[in-house]
């Protein structure tokens, strides 16, 4: 119990240091003092503009997206009782990406700024509703995972179709870049747009803490402990659709955060699913912030997309996990 | 309401899954203060019956506790009345034994409430009763089968439910711990006035620990009543297709299979055999 408070403070500190680094590091690096002055609005006007208009939205988005992905991963792994589960796995991320690509395809952003996030959330919600209906008719973890994989493939295929039939090279380029996952060149509009979905979705996911603990002993035992399984599944799925849909809509597909972070946090919380949720949100926020800062300082002639970076680091991690868990896989 | 004063009453309970009838018109009583053993061959519907009472499987018929119908399955109110120890030892995360036992207190906690002093006391008492305090801080997944079985039983005991349903609670245990667990369940029934229902395969243990026995076969109750009467029933051999020898060793009842019966002998009308 006593180890929990320093652990949470440590996580917060990593996130804050990462965020400060995110504000300092960039095309032109600034010292911490200049950044703080810029934030407060009474420093060099150029520094103030860059820090407030360019780097602050980016850093805040990194925190939001990371928290969303980390929390969603922890909740999903708890529900499925599988450390290999990831929001991408049940097709929510890819459906959100599909929704966004459709917006690109038809140039919906010319109508309104919010068209992109709206279609992404719609995509995530559609898949979530289908999954919910399947979960109600055919309960069981395996059904959920398999249907998720099927929906994920379908969303991937439709995304390819949209790219295939792209109206012009410019739109194609935009879609492909967006799919790689980045939080570059975002404004405070996006930061504010994500927030309500993130808050509501996180609230739903945090409300599942007890149920996820009970699931440690299996679905039947959880039921006899007074857990309404249908309601628990619905809360997790809707919560994940909200946070992941909103995150994907502003950042594109940033993979493996929801897989890696809960895994790293688990030993610190005694593997208890309920205690994993908030640390995973904090850890995800810290990880994406650090990864995004890293993406900026890598000496490449074009900035590396943060989604590409997380995938390059995350995929081998996933493979290592699979190899470690292969004996216990069903 | 049947003639029962207090306890669990099951009336005409049936379970159908995928068009197959697994439990058919089962009526039985499990009074408070006593251990009721459910015996019968594999596939008799014992586990299915227990899971139906626990609220995991939908069923036909009525289940009442002290004359009142049970709350909705999956509700916390029901979880506060009925504790269920399923077969098998599913523990999906390497949480410590103490954390696993604490899960037994979930039905008593509000959604955002953490363990109170009374909850912690209940958990520690359950760990002590099951001789599990020694390894309470080790991950459940790292324990031996017998140790894990005791921890999972402690989880049920910590809930302080009026009814305890245990599906083969001693299957993974050595003889010493088998006796200890059955004595503990008897003690829960008598001292705490709970209705305890236990599925058992070891008939000697059933004869020793259970006041009442229910013999099931093919989803139905063949005979039920005081343990001695059920074990003396001519149906026992036929249902198991085994000739049982019965006696006492140092005043302890022993029921042991002597030889298997062939189809012809099973079909014959049951006769009393010398015991």
TrEMBL record, chain A:
<feature type="transmembrane region" description="Helical">
    <location>
        <begin position="114"/>
        <end position="135"/>
    </location>
</feature>
<keyword id="KW-1133">Transmembrane helix</keyword>
<feature type="transmembrane region" description="Helical">
    <location>
        <begin position="191"/>
        <end position="212"/>
    </location>
</feature>
<feature type="transmembrane region" description="Helical">
    <location>
        <begin position="304"/>
        <end position="323"/>
    </location>
</feature>
<feature type="transmembrane region" description="Helical">
    <location>
        <begin position="60"/>
        <end position="80"/>
    </location>
</feature>
<dbReference type="GO" id="GO:0005886">
    <property type="term" value="C:plasma membrane"/>
</dbReference>
<dbReference type="InterPro" id="IPR000522">
    <property type="entry name" value="ABC_transptr_permease_BtuC"/>
</dbReference>
<dbReference type="Pfam" id="PF01032">
    <property type="entry name" value="FecCD"/>
</dbReference>
<feature type="transmembrane region" description="Helical">
    <location>
        <begin position="232"/>
        <end position="264"/>
    </location>
</feature>
<comment type="similarity">
    <text>Belongs to the binding-protein-dependent transport system permease family. FecCD subfamily.</text>
</comment>
<dbReference type="GO" id="GO:0033214">
    <property type="term" value="P:siderophore-iron import into cell"/>
</dbReference>
<feature type="transmembrane region" description="Helical">
    <location>
        <begin position="276"/>
        <end position="298"/>
    </location>
</feature>
<dbReference type="GO" id="GO:0022857">
    <property type="term" value="F:transmembrane transporter activity"/>
</dbReference>
<protein>
    <submittedName>
        <fullName>Iron ABC transporter permease</fullName>
    </submittedName>
</protein>
<dbReference type="InterPro" id="IPR037294">
    <property type="entry name" value="ABC_BtuC-like"/>
</dbReference>
<keyword id="KW-0472">Membrane</keyword>
<keyword id="KW-1003">Cell membrane</keyword>
<feature type="transmembrane region" description="Helical">
    <location>
        <begin position="7"/>
        <end position="30"/>
    </location>
</feature>
<keyword id="KW-0812">Transmembrane</keyword>
<feature type="transmembrane region" description="Helical">
    <location>
        <begin position="142"/>
        <end position="163"/>
    </location>
</feature>
<feature type="transmembrane region" description="Helical">
    <location>
        <begin position="87"/>
        <end position="108"/>
    </location>
</feature>
<keyword id="KW-0813">Transport</keyword>
Automatic annotation (TrEMBL), chain B:
<dbReference type="InterPro" id="IPR027417">
    <property type="entry name" value="P-loop_NTPase"/>
</dbReference>
<keyword id="KW-0547">Nucleotide-binding</keyword>
<keyword id="KW-0067">ATP-binding</keyword>
<dbReference type="InterPro" id="IPR003593">
    <property type="entry name" value="AAA+_ATPase"/>
</dbReference>
<dbReference type="Pfam" id="PF00005">
    <property type="entry name" value="ABC_tran"/>
</dbReference>
<dbReference type="InterPro" id="IPR003439">
    <property type="entry name" value="ABC_transporter-like_ATP-bd"/>
</dbReference>
<dbReference type="InterPro" id="IPR017871">
    <property type="entry name" value="ABC_transporter-like_CS"/>
</dbReference>
<protein>
    <submittedName>
        <fullName>ABC transporter ATP-binding protein</fullName>
    </submittedName>
</protein>
<dbReference type="GO" id="GO:0016887">
    <property type="term" value="F:ATP hydrolysis activity"/>
</dbReference>
<feature type="domain" description="ABC transporter">
    <location>
        <begin position="8"/>
        <end position="243"/>
    </location>
</feature>
<dbReference type="GO" id="GO:0005524">
    <property type="term" value="F:ATP binding"/>
</dbReference>
């Amino acid at each position: 119990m006593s180890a929990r408070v320093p652990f949470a403070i440590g996580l917060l500190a990593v996130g804050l240091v990462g965020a400060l680094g995110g504000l300092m590091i960039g095309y032109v690096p600034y010292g911490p003092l200049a950044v703080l002055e810029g934030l407060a609005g009474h420093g060099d006007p150029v520094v103030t503009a860059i820090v407030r208009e360019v780097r602050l939205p980016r850093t805040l988005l990194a925190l939001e997206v990371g928290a969303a992905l980390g929390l969603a991963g922890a909740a999903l792994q708890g529900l499925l009782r599988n450390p290999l589960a990831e929001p991408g796995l049940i097709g929510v991320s890819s459906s959100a990406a599909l929704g966004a690509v459709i917006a690109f395809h038809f140039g919906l952003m010319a109508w309104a700024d919010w068209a992109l996030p709206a279609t992404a959330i719609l995509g995530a919600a559609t898949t979530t509703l289908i999954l919910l209906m399947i979960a109600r008719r055919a309960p069981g973890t395996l059904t959920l995972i398999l249907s998720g994989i099927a929906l994920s493939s379908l969303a991937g295929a439709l995304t390819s179709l949209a790219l295939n039939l792209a109206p012009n090279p410019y739109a194609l380029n935009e879609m492909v870049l967006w799919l790689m996952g980045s939080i570059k060149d975002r404004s405070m509009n996006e930061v504010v747009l994500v927030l309500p979905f993130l808050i509501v979705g996180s609230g739903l996911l945090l409300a599942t803490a007890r149920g996820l603990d009970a699931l440690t002993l299996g679905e039947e035992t959880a039921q006899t402990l007074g857990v309404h399984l249908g309601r628990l599944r619905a809360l997790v799925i809707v919560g994940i659709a909200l946070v992941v849909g909103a995150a994907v809509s502003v950042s594109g597909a940033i993979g493996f955060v929801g897989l890696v972070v809960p895994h790293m946090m688990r030993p610190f919380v005694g593997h208890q699913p309920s205690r994993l949720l908030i640390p995973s949100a904090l850890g995800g926020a810290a990880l994406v912030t650090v990864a995004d800062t890293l993406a900026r300082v890598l000496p490449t002639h074009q900035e590396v997309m943060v989604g590409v970076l997380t995938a390059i680091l995350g995929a081998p991690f996933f493979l290592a996990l699979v190899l470690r868990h292969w004996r216990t896989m069903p | 309401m049947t003639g029962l004063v207090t306890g669990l009453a099951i009336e005409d309970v049936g379970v159908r899954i995928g068009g197959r009838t697994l439990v058919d018109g089962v009526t039985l009583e499990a009074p408070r203060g006593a251990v009721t053993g459910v015996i019968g061959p594999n596939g008799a519907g014992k586990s299915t019956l227990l899971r139906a009472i626990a609220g995991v499987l939908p069923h036909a018929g009525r289940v009442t506790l002290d004359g009142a119908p049970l709350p909705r399955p999956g509700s916390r109110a029901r979880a506060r009345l009925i504790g269920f120890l399923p077969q098998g030892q599913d523990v999906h995360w390497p949480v410590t034994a103490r954390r696993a036992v604490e899960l037994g207190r979930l039905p008593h906690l509000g959604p955002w409430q953490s363990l109170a002093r009374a909850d912690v006391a209940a958990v520690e008492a359950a760990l002590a009763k099951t001789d599990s305090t020694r390894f309470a801080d080790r991950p459940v997944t790292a324990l031996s089968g017998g140790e894990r079985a005791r921890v999972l039983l402690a989880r049920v005991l910590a809930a302080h439910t009026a009814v305890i349903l245990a599906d083969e609670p001693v299957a993974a245990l050595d003889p010493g711990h088998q006796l200890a667990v059955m004595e503990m369940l008897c003690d829960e029934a008598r001292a705490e006035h709970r209705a305890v229902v236990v599925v058992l395969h070891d008939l000697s243990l059933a004869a020793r620990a259970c006041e009442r026995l229910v013999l099931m076969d093919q989803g139905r109750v063949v005979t039920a009543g005081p343990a001695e009467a059920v074990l003396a029933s001519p149906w026992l051999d036929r249902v198991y297709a085994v000739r049982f020898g019965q006696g006492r060793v140092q005043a302890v009842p022993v029921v042991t299979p002597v030889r298997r019966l062939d189809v012809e002998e099973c079909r014959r009308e049951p006769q009393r055999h010398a015991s």
